[in-house]
Each structure stands twice: as structure tokens, then as C-alpha cells.
Write a structure and sequence with these properties.
The complex is a heterodimer. Helix content of chain A is about 30%, strand content about 25%. Chain A is an alpha+beta fold. Among the domains of chain A are: about 90 residues, Rossmann fold (3-Layer(aba) Sandwich); about 60 residues, Dna Ligase, domain 1 (2-Layer Sandwich). Classes of the chains: A alpha+beta, B mainly alpha.
């Protein structure tokens, strides 16, 4: 590897895919490795040549090793069918996704801007509602939104931060432009995979990384804890932070373990906490001990049976009242779901301009709101070329991908759409960028997206990189883990 | 006194986690004991009445009713199937590793990643056992695999588990299980042996061998007592000896030490009942007392010890558990 230095390859020009890369053809999609139309980046060129030189048999063996490693380490999510629980891994593709320093700076500043706007929007709609009065966002879209939370009205959260942890789903179109697909402002998952994927890369692909300067991802727990301490009640000098999980049966339990472990704080369940004398306590071997900040991984509805779903066994009775009195901090705040709603998403560029008087650094995907008659008419006319999404769903369920749908499916969907237009938005079919991915046929282009994680207290910090999800099936655009997607390590070059 | 770093930041232990830690240790220890007794029975306890030997294992574990419901005769095959393969049997290694893993999963943010990884892999090996694993020519290898897995766990825990409160509770769980298992072992074997000792010291050498091997104490016992077996001496070795890692006395002493550490280093309170019970029980684990009891009938005493160990677990969990 020593002879394969950076300086030597800088003089190389991009040669057609050879070796293990033989037969790799991204077609009309933007390839994150080849970068058509951009000057060759020396590190990418070097990576391509290293990759091409790795025998496919070696890659496959490494993939098998990685898979076994993930299973043995229990880096898994649990799927429940009937009475049986099966541990599944999120398939890991060995070939990293690369972001150049300039690309990362663009994403980072764009994410920071977006999180700022989201927090200002949330503060506004739960206080003065200026943005609604000014007619920028339709009032009913906010106030009648299922995720809008009455209990939040007039309540000042610490540092005016509602979204402490944000996962922004970003895709890249055929021109190489980054576009935001979705904001995840409730309890975004996946950061554990960012870190574990890096560890996996270091274990099985270290020869690919030799000599490269890739930004580290191990800081996350420290940064997160710092923010959790920042938002704790001000009188407390050494705040007790906990991660609140629904428990071992939750499919994202590994993520919860990871978060607690990386912050060095207890992983608790609702039954471990109690509210007494207006304060929140945890049940320890030494009796009740005070809790000052809760990073909760439980949905709003289940957080406190006194305020929300009275049937909830997962939450803590009286928690919201204690929060409102300032005895404890909760991250993310309750009621943030209204900001990451797919209907509100369409207004995000206007929301950014309204609060920040800036142009959005990261563009949205062009989005039509079917509640608006023109948009509905256009969507119905162009159904076969659009992606139509129900606004209330997540995880890639219930959406129509026009170009892939049969005539019958299009007709059925048109009926659904006409019956309840307000429930849908439509977007052009995205030509998502692709990245070289190890497939049965060899190394082939597969579609990817990116979810960077932003942590916000007084300021916003973005973990360099993020979760790159890859649609492993040829031609498919859906990268969700629940729909057969996998992940890649994301390398931000220093 | 704690050092200065520790006093600056109090690390609490969630009560529910303390309890899960005790259970994790107990289930892993149970697997080792079960594997050893299956192996020893298979190897050393051969005599014309094979059934009686094999039946002693369900008896030790209080499983006679459940076993008889499933199997007509106690043989290497039926007892092996019951303990190594039967997921429906709540005392099988299958059930033990599942319970251990469930507790480890709850504790994943607390225990070392290496502990979790090993338990997870071990779980996979146990789940992969099948009818072929218990045929005579594979039986010893499977028992060894189980012992190895449980001992690897013990070693990894020794080398990687941070020694704060959780470690103390873990060690309490391990000692509770060892004391309990030794008492059970002694109980059934004495039950089977005592009436036959009248015939002479060496007639039952094979049985004493098996008993001591099942507790991993054979060679140590030989060293202490090179002249042969005496029931009272065996009883003393397993109950009152303070050097034998699985003696009841040693383990009660360990529990006492860990409880006192929890009190002095972590300020845990409310353990008076447990300490009182421990003190009384430990007071009976002397050579004089055990020799005296064993010269009459050990069984009622062993029943009492077993009940007290169970009560001790309850005391500790009631005070500190979730």
C-alpha cells in the first residue's frame, strides 16, 4: 500500500472501470464515485484504483465476515412475526460513500440552517403564530396536524431548542445537486450505524482507507451528552442524564443501548422513573435519585399517560407537568412532529426565508401539495411520472412510484388520492445518485441517500458524515431498512 | 474511602439492572453446573443401575415431575434431550442461555461489549444443538462446549466488567448460584449414598468421585484427604471448606464481602435483613457443626440451607432490585 500513495495517483486520470469495477455503468445517474462532469478528485481516483484491484472473491469473503460480525455483535434490529422474534442485521455494503470537504461543508451549513429554521418555526407556532398570521403556512395545516401538541402552547423550552437531535434525509439528483427529502425531528434513528459502520470499515476494509484522511465519527456521544447537560435545569451542576427506551423488545433497542453507552448514562424504561414532589427520579439501588435530562426514545403519545395516551405502559406519569415546571429537560421536545410532517416539508423553503431572511442552502425536492386544487390536477394528470406520498406515513409505506406502477395500480391510487387529497403530496421521480455496491453480479451502481445527524443545544453540531442508506435491489429507489435497504459507511474527507 | 474522582460524580445503578445482573450471573453459572453434572454422570457414574444415576439429575434440579411427564425412562438419551435440547423445559441449557441473554440484553449498556458478544455467540451455539449432538459419541464434546462457553463468560467477566456496583451484584449472583448448586448436589448424592456407606469406606468410591467431580472439587479433595472418603469429610469439604471455590461457606463469605462493599463504598442501606440471615447461615458452616450434622442425617440441614439461600436472594432483590 505504501507505493500506492496519494501523490502518485494525483497525476492519474480516470480510466474506464476495470478489474473488480469491470462492467460498472451508472448510466444516466450521478455516480458518487465517478462524478461525471466534475474534475477528478485525487482521493476518489485513488479509491477507485484500490477498489478495482481488490479481487471480487476477497470482497465477497469480507462481506461474509462483516455479516457474521454484525450478527455476533448483536448490531441488529428485531423483527416480530407472530410469537417469534428474529434478530436481523441491516445489510452492510463494504464500499464506502465518499463526501469531499466542499460537499460536506455545503451539507453541514445547509443542515445547520434548516435546524435553526425548524426550531424557530416550532417556537413560533407554539407561541405567537406569526408565520400563520402572515399567511406563509396555512394555519389549518399546523393547527389541525395530528402531531400538533396543544400541551406545548405557551411553554418555553430551554434555549428555545425543540429539535435537539435532527436527522435530515438528503438525496442527490442526476445533476449532483443535494436536495432534502425529509426532516426527521422526532426521534431519528440510525446514528449507531454510522459509528458501527465505521468500526466495521476499519475491521474489514482498512486497506482501502490506508493513508487517507477521513473525519472521525466517535465524538457523537460526547457532543450529545454536552447538549443534554446544556438543557438541564440551570441550578444543577452535575446533571443526571438518562436515555429512556421502550425496552428490549423495541426494534431500535440497539440504538438505545448505543446512545446510553456512548453518553455513559443509564438506559432506563418508564418503570424505572417516577415523578414525586414535582421532580423526576429514577429507582436505583440506593433509592430514588434525581434525573435532570431525559433523551427519550419513546413517541410523544406514550410519554406520559396523564397528558397523552392514558393506556401507555411505557411512559412516566406526571412527566410532562414536571417538564413544564422546569424540573427536568426532555429531548427532543414534545410536539416536534408537526415540523417534520410531509405537508409542512413543502413549505420549508418559505419557512427558512421567513425566519432567517436567507435562501435555503439545501434545496427541497420540488413538491406539490395535493390539498391545493392546481397541484391535485397536475398530480392526477402526471401520476405515471410522479412519486406520491401520504403525509402521515413513514418508512416508505403507502407511497406510489408512478413510473414503476401498473395501469391498474395507477387507477387505484388516483381513487385514493381524489378521496383524500389533503393526505398527499407529489414529487417528480427522483433520479437518485448511485454508488458502487457489491451485488451478486459484481460491483454495480445502487441508489443511495444520506441522513446526517445534527445535535443542537446552544449551537448546532453536525456529525461528519451520516447514515448512507443503499437500495440493494436493482432499480429500486426505496432505501428504508424496513423495505430491504442496507447501509454504507460514509467518509467525509478531511 | 473512595478516591477523589469517584466522589465527584455519583454513578447510580438502576435497581432493575442490579436484579438483572444477579440473574445473568446465576443463569450462566447454572449452565456450567448442568454441563458438568451431565458430563460426570455420563463418564464416571456408570454402574448396573444406570437409570438411578441419570434420574439424579432431574432430582437435583427439582424436575422429577416435569421429566417423568416427558420421558418414561431416565437414560443418557432422555436426560440429555431434556436438558440439552428441550426448549420447553424451563431448566434446560436452552432456557438458561435464553434467560441469560435476555438479562444481558437489558444490561447491554452496562456490561462490556465483549461479554455481550460472547453470550450472543454462545446462545447461537446452544440453539444449534440437535438430536445428533446428544448421541453417545458427541455427548462429552457438547458438555465441554457448554462448560467452555460458561467459563469463557466467567473469564471475560473477570477481565472486562468494570468493578462498580454492577460487578458486586454480579458476584453476589454467582455465589448464590454456586452455593445453591452445591447444596443440591450434596443433597441428592447423600440421599443416594448414606445407606450404603455401612459396608465400608471404599465401596462407594465411584460415587464420591462423581459427586466431587460434578462440583469440580475432586483433585482438591484428594489433596486434602489422601486417605479415602468419609461422608462427613465430603460434607465438610463442600459446605465448610473456605478454599474450595464452590463450597457453600466460601460463597456465603463472598456474598457477605460484596454486600459490605456495597454498603461502605456506595452507601447502600437496608441490607440488615440479608446480613442477619447470612450471618446465621454462615455460622452453621463450620467443620464441627457439619461433621456433627452429617453423622446423623444431612438432608434436613441441606433443605434448610437451600431455603435460606433462596430467602437471601429474595432479601437482596427486595432491598435493591427493581
Amino acid at each position: 500500500m505504501q507505493t500506492d500513495g496519494l501523490s502518485q495517483s494525483q497525476t492519474q486520470t480516470l480510466s474506464p472501470p476495470h478489474g473488480t469495477m469491470q462492467g460498472y455503468d451508472p448510466g444516466g445517474f450521478f455516480c458518487e464515485m465517478l462524478r461525471p462532469g466534475q474534475p477528478p478528485h485525487p482521493t476518489l481516483t485513488l479509491l477507485m484504483s484500490r477498489l478495482a484491484a481488490l479481487p471480487i472473491g476477497s470482497l465477497r469473503q469480507r462481506a461474509i465476515d462483516a455479516e457474521r460480525d454484525l450478527l455476533e455483535r448483536g448490531i441488529t434490529f428485531t423483527v416480530y412475526s407472530d410469537a417469534t422474534a428474529i434478530d436481523r442485521i441491516l445489510p452492510f455494503d463494504l464500499i464506502p460513500r465518499i463526501l469531499t470537504p466542499a460537499e460536506w461543508q455545503h451539507i453541514e451549513t445547509g443542515v445547520v440552517q434548516r435546524v435553526r429554521a425548524l426550531n424557530m418555526f416550532l417556537h413560533d407556532i407554539y407561541h405567537e403564530r406569526k408565520i400563520l398570521a402572515d399567511g406563509i403556512v396555512p394555519a389549518e395545516l399546523v393547527l389541525k396536524n395530528a402531531a400538533y401538541c396543544e400541551a406545548m402552547v405557551g411553554f418555553d423550552v430551554p434555549l428555545n431548542t425543540y429539535v435537539h437531535i435532527c436527522g435530515t434525509d438528503i438525496v442527490r439528483d442526476e445533476t449532483g445537486e443535494f436536495r432534502v427529502l425529509e426532516d426527521n425531528a422526532r426521534t431519528p434513528s440510525g446514528v449507531s450505524y454510522v459509528v458501527e459502520n465505521r468500526h466495521m470499515s476499519l475491521r474489514v476494509m482498512s486497506d482501502l482507507m490506508t493513508g487517507l484522511r477521513v473525519r472521525g465519527v466517535d465524538e457523537y456521544g460526547l457532543r450529545l451528552h454536552q447538549v443534554m447537560a446544556e438543557i438541564a435545569p440551570p441550578a444543577v451542576s452535575d446533571p443526571q442524564v438518562v436515555v429512556l427506551s421502550p425496552g428490549i423488545f423495541n426494534s431500535a433497542y440497539f440504538e438505545h443501548v448505543f446512545l446510553a453507552r456512548e453518553m455513559g448514562v443509564p438506559l432506563v424504561e418508564g418503570r424505572d422513573l417516577t415523578v414525586e414532589g414535582g421532580k423526576v427520579w429514577m429507582r436505583t439501588t440506593a433509592g430514588l435519585a434525581p434525573v435532570h435530562t431525559i433523551y427519550r426514545r419513546i413517541g410523544d403519545d406514550f410519554l406520559d399517560p396523564d397528558t397523552f395516551n392514558p393506556e401507555s405502559m411505557l411512559g412516566v406519569r406526571g412527566l410532562i407537568e414536571a417538564w413544564r415546571r422546569g424540573a427536568v429537560a426532555i429531548a427532543n421536545a414534545v410536539g416536534t412532529g408537526v415540523a417534520d410532517d410531509k405537508a409542512i416539508y413543502a413549505y420549508m423553503p418559505r419557512i427558512i426565508r421567513y425566519y432567517l431572511s436567507e435562501e435555503p442552502i439545501l434545496k427541497n425536492v420540488d413538491t406539490r401539495i395535493c390539498a391545493e386544487p392546481d397541484a391535485l390536477a397536475y398530480t392526477l394528470d402526471h401520476l405515471h411520472e410522479l412519486v406520491v406520498k401520504p403525509v402521515a406515513e413513514s418508512g416508505g409505506y403507502g407511497l406510489l412510484i408512478g413510473p414503476h406502477a401498473s395501469k391498474r395500480q395507477l387507477e387505484d391510487f388516483a381513487r385514493l388520492l381524489k378521496a383524500d387529497p389533503a393526505n398527499y403530496i407529489s414529487q417528480p421521480t427522483l433520479k437518485l445518485s448511485v454508488s458502487p455496491t457489491l451485488c451478486d453480479q459484481g460491483v454495480r451502481p445502487r441508489h443511495i441517500d444520506l441522513r446526517p445527524f445534527a445535535v443542537t443545544g446552544k449551537d448546532t453540531w453536525v456529525l461528519p458524515g451520516g447514515l448512507t442508506r443503499v437500495a440493494l435491489k436493482q432499480g429500486t429507489l426505496v432505501v428504508n431498512s424496513s423495505q430491504g435497504g442496507g447501509t454504507k459507511d460514509t467518509w467525509v474527507l478531511a | 474511602m473512595m478516591d477523589t474522582i469517584a466522589t465527584q460524580h455519583t454513578v447510580h445503578l438502576i435497581a432493575r439492572h442490579a436484579e438483572a445482573t444477579i440473574w445473568l450471573a446465576r443463569y450462566m453459572e447454572r449452565i456450567e453446573n448442568l454441563a458438568r453434572i451431565l458430563d460426570v454422570t455420563n463418564t464416571f457414574a456408570r454402574d448396573p443401575d444406570d437409570t438411578r444415576n441419570w434420574l439424579s439429575i432431574p432430582r437435583i434440579n427439582g424436575d422429577l415431575v416435569a421429566f417423568n411427564k416427558r420421558h418414561a425412562v431416565a437414560t443418557q438419551g432422555s436426560v440429555g434431550a431434556f436438558y440439552l435440547l428441550d426448549a420447553g423445559n424451563s431448566t434446560s441449557v436452552h432456557a438458561c442461555i435464553s434467560a441469560a441473554r435476555e438479562n444481558a440484553r437489558m444490561l447491554r449498556a452496562l456490561i462490556s461489549t465483549e461479554m455481550w458478544l460472547q453470550i450472543n455467540v454462545f446462545y447461537g451455539h446452544i440453539r444449534a444443538l440437535n438430536a445428533d449432538s446428544i448421541i453417545p459419541e458427541h455427548f462429552t464434546a457438547v458438555c465441554n462446549m457448554l462448560k467452555d462457553g460458561a467459563q469463557a463468560h466467567t473469564g471475560i467477566t473477570e477481565g472486562t466488567l468494570y468493578r462498580d456496583q454492577a460487578w458486586h451484584f454480579y458476584m453476589i449472583g454467582r455465589s448464590l448460584e454456586r452455593a445453591d448448586q452445591t447444596t443440591r448436589l450434596l443433597d441428592t448424592r447423600f440421599h443416594a449414598l448414606v445407606p450404603r456407606t455401612d459396608a465400608g469406606d471404599n465401596i462407594d468410591a465411584g460415587h464420591w468421585n462423581a459427586l466431587l467431580r460434578a462440583a469440580a472439587g475432586y483433585h482438591a479433595y484428594r489433596r486434602e484427604h489422601p486417605n479415602g472418603y468419609h461422608p462427613q469429610e465430603v460434607a465438610c469439604f463442600m459446605l465448610a471448606n473456605r478454599a474450595f471455590p464452590r463450597s457453600v461457606g466460601l460463597n456465603l463469605g463472598r456474598i457477605e464481602w460484596h454486600l459490605s462493599q456495597l454498603r461502605t463504598s456506595y452507601g447502600l442501606r437496608g441490607m440488615a435483613a440479608a446480613l442477619e440471615r447470612l450471618d446465621q447461615l454462615n455460622g452453621t458452616m463450620t467443620y464441627e457443626h457439619v461433621t456433627e450434622v452429617a453423622s446423623r442425617d444431612l438432608s434436613p440441614f441441606l433443605d434448610y440451607v437451600q431455603r435460606e439461600i433462596g430467602a437471601l436472594h429474595q432479601d437482596i432483590v427486595a432491598t435493591f432490585g427493581g
